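[User] I wish I could look at a protein chain and see how it folds. I have put the entry right below:
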Amino acid sequence: MDESLPRPITLLRSALLSDGGLVDVAITGDMVTEVAPAGSLAASAEGTLDLEGRLLLTAPAEPHAHLDKALSADRINPPLGDLGSAIAAWAAYATTMSVDEIADRARTAALALLAAGTTAVRTHVDVLSHGGTGTVADAVRGARALVQVRDELADLMDIELVALAGPLAPDEHVEAVLDLGVDLVGGAPHLAEDPLADVDRLLAIAHRRGLGVDLHADESLDGPVTLDHYARAVRDWPRDRQYSAGHCVRLGTLGPERLAEVVADVAAADLGVITLPITNLYLQGWQHPVSTPRGLTAIRALLAAGVRVAAGADNVRDPFNPVGRSDALETASLLVTAGHLTPDEAYAMVSDAARSVMGLPAAGPVVGARADLLAVAATSVTDAVANAPADRIVLSRGRLVARTEVRRTVARTRTVSTERTSVAQLVP
């Protein structure tokens, strides 16, 4: 294994495409420049990487992470429970965190994502206002940590930051977080006493700053619906910014007429929707021990309307989700099981659709696309989603940034000799 990473790659040899073709892929800088039958292209030995028939895919992108919370579960030891319990456990722990402690966990989580193939991450970071009573210095701790990690890892992966402003976070604190170079405005208006007013407050901050928006929206099985209000508000806003909503669980519980109305508003605004199966399957439905709801948004209705629907892992080993592998193939598998998608549809939602919702250039083994690529020891997309092979090769912007090799040894079975008697021999 070559440990000198990142390493520029100019040729991927013997790559298996999802359509079954075996090809060579030429890369110039950070772009795919040629795809040709295997064995037909040449490059320097230093720039050539033989994939030996591994499946070559668009690298996953994570459209909704919480790197500031990641890997905190063992420190918090939170009770198992719903969204309210998770928020309370996190709020209590957040008062104790230092910038260095947040950065250490976030860095570890980001590199785990990269090793699994994810080359771009959009992560929310809490405005740590302690219910509106904290200082500006308190409020920006998480943002300082994640800006530091983003800068440290800039040569390896794309990290985009969203200011997650709770309903009690003063505008002054939100502005201070944005002043550090956070990219988007976010929040959780459905938790506010007046949800629509909080949507308007956050949109006003974004409009004033000329920033995009990514809100947590309607993360419950009942309660307010804010998604259509948000969609109508940004419908005519500048399209050089990104507008998206994560969770949207309430949408999955609406009746046909109301669902159609909200979906139409979302489609008209070209609002990206991000479904988060692992966390919402865990957090939602605790109050419904019989016929427990799935806790997902209305994926099929959104796709049918032409809405860009991405999927992410959300939380990883924190009060909001005690498990998680930081692996987009885990998210894709859950979409197949709980969302009734095909493996190809599911993988597209954690790769191509995720990049679209994040405003990133198209990537994949296609001429003219960004060379953000994942090679896995699999024979098809279905095989990859089903088995999540640990053997992976990751390219970010045309450079080899991670490689995991697996050696498997299985004991031999006993050879048993059996004598077979034909039916004819048994007939008298």
In short: Residues 7-58+365-404 form a domain with the Urease, subunit C; domain 1 fold (CATH 2.30.40.10).
